[in-house]
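Take just one protein record:
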Amino acid sequence: MWLLLGMFSGTRPLFEREPDPAAFPERGAAQLNRTIAALLSKETLPAYYHASARETQRQHGGKWMTYDYAAQIGDPAALSPLLLKLSETIENSGGEIFQTYSQPEERRTTLVIGIGTLITHTIVISWPEIAPVAQEPQPFRAAIIIDDLGTSLPMVERLLALNQQFTFSILPHQKASADIAELLHARQQQVLLHLPMEPQDYPSISPGKGAILSRMSADQIQRQIQEDLATVPYASGVNNHMGSRLTTQAGMMQAVLKELQQRQLFFVDSRTTDATIAFQLAQQIGVKSGERKIFLDANPGKEFAKEQMRKLAELAEQGGPAIAIGHPKEATLTALEETLPEFQRRNIKIVSVSELLQ
């Protein structure tokens, strides 16, 4: 009852009561002060650590020393562990944390500490404003497919020596098709089947062994793709070799794309004709797909290929699906060697073509 009356009659908190001057525990306060000082000097930044003592006088002539500390930590994440250590240290020394004032907007926390009902210490712990970590800008992305592989391992080795994430498209049924695919897989490079398709001038122009022809039935297309894939292990997708006629024929391309969908393979339209409908059809069917935007070496010579690489860089910086196709030619290889450092300076990353598909 007396306690309740005291609480509701305006009595100040215990640590603000006027104590008996003779009752101040000088020895206990001094011991508590030593343990607090030792902990703060160890756990906070030396350059920002400050301690002071002041004489406190209350009514009836009582006087004693109270201690003020200002300390700084380098990281706000260190505050909770420090408060835990302070709490344990103070309690073990016979003291008590009366109150904790948290002021995160001012980047500081204040502790009021005492023994019994008497305030003996105040500690202000602060921390500096943490500047936000600068985020590395995300690189622009471009994909380069190297077509028509299957006969020359040395050229593949030279391309690999450029240490780029090219995409390698291998013709089926060539003397080195499987060996190249095995090598690329071992080097963690993306492999495509470079699927031959009927061109406009067929049979005057032959797309090569393993081609999809417009006279084929859906079953024949299925078997041909199966045979072609057997010679190019680890293929994760397909792009067309030639195909200026076949890629304009909706029925034929639908049969091809349905088979790729069944096998969970993606498709890149090489766009060997402006009349192609292959990419649009793939999107309608739901096959993950993309289309070539730049031919690196449609014309011979290193300078043309270098200019095309610059166009690819501009396309990547515009945020579009920057997909280029090149071939294992000496001029193309030299152009890559000379322009890829510029890509790095412009923060353009060469990625596997599958990263740019929809």
Q: What stands out?
A: DSSP finds ten helices and 14 strands in the chain. The longest helix spans residues 26-43. The first strand starts at residue 50 and ends at 57. The CA atoms of residues 57 and 312 lie 80 Å apart.
